[in-house]
Structure prediction request, 464 residues.
Amino acid sequence: MRRRLDEPEGLFGPPTSAPQRPGAGSLAGNTHASAPLAVRMRPRTLDELVGQSQLRAPGSPLRQLIEGDQSMSLLLWGPPGTGKTTIAAILSQQTDRRFVEVSAVSAGVKEVRAAIDAARAELVNASRETVLFVDEVHRFSKAQQDALLPGVENRWVTLVAATTENPFFSVISPLLSRSLLLRLESLTDDDVRRVLDQAITDERGLAGRFTVEPDALDHLVRLAGGDARRSLTYLEASAGAASARGSDTVDLSTAETAVDQAAVRYDRQGDQHYDVTSAFIKSVRGSDADAALHYLARMMEAGEDPRFIARRLVILASEDIGLADPTALTTAVAAAQAVQLIGMPEARLNLAQAVIALAVAPKSNAVISAIDAASADVRAGKIGPVPPHLRDAHYSGAKKLGHGKTYKYSHDEPYGVAEQQYAPDVVRDAEYYRPTSLGAEAAVKERWERIRRLIRGEGPTPPR
Prediction:
């Protein structure tokens, strides 16, 4: 499925008086009155962008690429709605390049090669370069990503590939090494407010025909969740609702009706956001399921990203429960997967179930204490060589070096536990994991103490 080139992806801002260069391509004709507000307010130049200050700074790679009219491929990594498509379109528009989009959702190797062949022909016949925008490049297979390499290596195209996934895991190394990686961040609430303020007064937007009351504006900003496109869609719907009532004022009630959500006092970027999130986590940690459900409801009713809530629960499951209830992490991960699979509002049930389960579970911070202690030793330089008997002995010549020579295969030993040194000398006596006697970790504690003594030759007591 292709996304239309006139469909914005966030990062809208004030207009500019800069003339439009020829070759604006798909952006031409998108300012007509019947176009969606988000389309009409789409930025046309780099200076119109709101947010992403690290990318717009003087001398930044993106500004050099656009203003210097250089040929360089980009990987744009960021959450949805942060302006990846917009940046690609601006790059095409301000440098007079052709703009071609390929969606990784529907395109195959054949379509990729066809786009690159067409770009090569355009370069040879008309001396005009092409911006090839690949949306959701992380969905491409290795073979599909390989098909992009000739065009990038020979600069037949200026590749702009967008991804919401970590490119170090989702993009092949040859393509990653040939591209400039730019990290995009979600817009702040102040950024979104600037976008809305501009749209209310700008001739391309509402042209001052409507007054938006402060609490209604706060509501729209909060529900946008850092996505300018969403905020403008909500604003347009609110203005339409006001107009249908014969009013030129958008109040809170109108905004609520337009976006079908209730306003809750909750600032996603300010103190309320951090206070409510903190209270939520501390309530689960403190085993107060009722309080935890209250804060969960506040976050959900305020439009908080359910993925954020799920991520916090996954972290808490290991940080505050750990092996006191080994099923806690499974429960939290299942809730996170349910959020992705089902979405809101139904996923609120999965989140609520997870919150209750984690709140009433026995608690232990032994896991985080263990890894923190181990990390502290590593940072302090306690990283001695791996004992020779544990080193890789599979390559030619390894045995001559003594690698693996005295290694004891655990399954050949009584109880499946071998007495031998595993840690480097510098930390051979370190005790990082100190299990508690709470919940299921009590049994883990007893077993681990027996195993530790046996491994270190401190006693013959077998593990149970």
